[in-house]
Each structure stands twice: as C-alpha cells, then as structure tokens.
Amino acid sequence: MKKMLLAGFAAIFLLYSCNEKKEKEGEEEVKETTEAVTEEKMPTPMHVYTKDSVTVNAYKYDGLEYFLTKSNDTTYVVNFWATWCVPCVEELPYFEQLNEKYKNDKVKVLLVSLDMHKSVESRLIPFIKNKKLQSDVVMLRDPDADTWIRKIDTTWSGALPATIIYNKDERKFYEQSFTYSELEKELNNFIKP
Amino acid sequence: MKAIKFLGAFAIIGVLFAFTVSKSDNVVNGYKVGDVATDFSLKNIDGKRVSLKDFKDAKGYIVVFTCNHCPYAKAYEDRIVALDKKYKKQGYPVIAINPNNPEKLKDDSFENMQVRAKEKGFTFPYLLDEGQKIYPQYGATKTPHVYVLQKTAKGNVVKYIGAIDDNYEDEAAVTKKYVEDAVNSLLKGKEVSVKETKAIGCSIKA
C-alpha cells in the first residue's frame, strides 16, 4: 500500500518538476529578449491618435514587444481585441473588472486594439469614452501579421480574441474567450504561488 | 489509509487533467499542407447544393471561409471577387463558405448572405456551412481563412493555408500576394513556396 502511495507521489513530483523545467526554459528566453528593451525607455509610437481628450498610441510590432516582455514584479494581462469583434466586446468588462479588483496586487491589464486605422476615430475612441475604459489601451498597427502573429505565439491562428498573461517568471497564451471566473482563475495561477 | 490512496490517485488525475486543459480549448486538428481535403455538399445562395466534384474542368480550388459581418472579411471581398475572375478561367475557381452559425450572428444568416453577395457582385458560389460540419474538418479558425486545393488522382490536396495577402487594410500597399503566388506556382507545375501564413481574423462562431 505504502509503495503505491509513494509511486503516486513520485509521479506527481515528476510531472511537476517537468513542468517547472519548461517554465524555466521559457523564462530564460523571455529574459534574453527583454534585457535589451528594458534598458531603453518607452518605445516611440508610430502614430498617436487624439480625439475628445482620449489618446491612443499605435505601435508597430517592434514597439509593442516592449509591453509584452516587461521583466518586473507586476503580472500583465494583455488582451488582443477590436471593437468589431463581438466576443471581444463581450469579454472586455471582465478584463476591466480584473484590472479594478487587482490594481493593488501588482496586476495590470493592457488592451491591445486591432481596430483598423480608418475606424480609430470613428469607433475605437468613442468606444473607450462611452465604456469609460480604465485599463490602458494601445493599438497594434502593423500589416505584416504573418510575422508578428508568430512572434506573439507560435500556436496563435490569428483569431480574436486572444490573451497573454505573463510576469517575469511565467507566460501563457490563450486563443479563446473568457468568462470572469475563468480569467480570474488563470490570473490566480500567476499571482498566488 | 484507503482515503489517502484515494486522494493520491485523485491528485494524479488532477495533475494530468490540468495539463490537458491548459493546452487551450481551440486545439486545431484541421488540415495541414499535403492532406487530402474533404468534399462537401452545401447550400449555395441560389438554393442549389454545391460540391467540389461539380467542377469537372477544375484543376483545383480556392476555398475561402468568409462571412458577412467581419470587417477583415469585408476588407477582402473585392479581392476575393478579383481572384475568382482571374483564376476561374484558368481552372482554379473560388468557393466561398460562411462557417458561422447564423443563430449566433444574424448578420451571417442565409438571407443576409444572399444580400451581401448581390451587393458585392460575387461571381462564385457562397455556401452556408449548415450545422458547422465542414470548417472544423478543414481547421478554419477565423474569417477570412483560405485553403488552396489541387485536384490530383488521390483527391483534392491542400497546397496552401492562410491569408490572401499581407495587407488587409491597404490593397495598394500589398507586397506579397500569397494566394496568387500559390495558384501561379501550381499552374506552372511548381511547388508552392510560401505554404502557410497567418493573419488576423474574426473567430468563427459555432
């Protein structure tokens, strides 16, 4: 009987250590790419949209990468969305809720809009204003999607919505929609050791 | 003791389960380049059913999963019409399929497909994937999502999967016409050089 138990624990331990190793490998990769970036200051936007006292910075992927690879004690929840994407708009309140609830726990939500250039002033900025979005919003404006989609995550097909949760130790990519409880549960895997 | 053993077993199952779910819900098991794609019989906007095998003289097909509501799909409508006009006569007709469940999105209903096709002057079949049976087999995840197929003795072989070109927003700024390049290569009997690309699109609503 004891042997069986032992075997059980050994199996758990093995799986766990295996997982940890993977995370560490991932961590090293992230660090490599961040060091160069964090020493520099904020990237310069390729375009700044301002209307009705709302400002949205647009970046090419090279600029956006800074926001996806920060290495500090904050956990970042980065959601890729667009005003035209129905499931994105449906789950957006959950990201806002999360941002509000965890604002004192070193958690930051970043909403990366993939709205089109021509609809920023007609749709995106009015949306930010009307919904009173509190999370930071930036825009990714880079037509070479085939290149940057793979850089964001090799498994991403390009469908919206998509989300990254990361901190200096761990990173996970999700090509899916979230409910609030699913999102909070995922975040808790990052902030509660 | 039994209880502990039970718990232990549970923990193992739990760990294994955690591993499976963390792989994301949208694991794509669709076609890869080189696979033989299934034929189908789907309702066209004129009410008739359309299958790939109906196109006796075709050398292949440009199968486009697209829809009415998605701005990315809309941005490409004119370019899809141009593809059909250019390549139908060379043996590669466009076959458009709306994979979305109209019950989830009224804009993508059969009636609205008819309206949109008329507005935009679609020159190709625009089929409804009723019951959402075909797109999962192809592995389409979004609109627009293109599969270039080549008719061969063993069936319709997937030769290219991905985007139409490299600039959804500005047709004039396109530098790589992925679908055209793929079909041109096939017409010349050459290997397709860029076999797979990624693009942003609207996730398919099943």
UniProtKB/TrEMBL annotation, chain A:
Keywords: Redox-active center. InterPro entries: AhpC/TSA, Thioredoxin-like_sf, Thioredoxin_CS, Thioredoxin_domain, Thioredoxin_ResA/DsbE_sf. This is Redoxin domain-containing protein. GO terms for molecular function: antioxidant activity; oxidoreductase activity. It comes from the Bacteria. It comes from Flavobacterium rakeshii. It holds the Pfam family AhpC-TSA. Residues 23-192 form the Thioredoxin domain. Gene3D superfamilies: Glutaredoxin.
TrEMBL record, chain B:
The keyword Hydrolase does not apply. SUPFAM superfamilies: Thioredoxin-like (SSF52833). Pfam families: AhpC-TSA. Residues 31-188 form the Thioredoxin domain. One of its GO terms (molecular function) is antioxidant activity. The keyword tRNA-binding does not apply. InterPro entries: AhpC/TSA, PRX-like1, Thioredoxin-like_sf, Thioredoxin_domain. Residues 1-18 form the signal peptide. Gene3D superfamilies: Glutaredoxin (3.40.30.10). Keywords: Signal. PROSITE patterns: THIOREDOXIN_2 (PS51352). This is Redoxin domain-containing protein. It comes from Flavobacterium rakeshii.
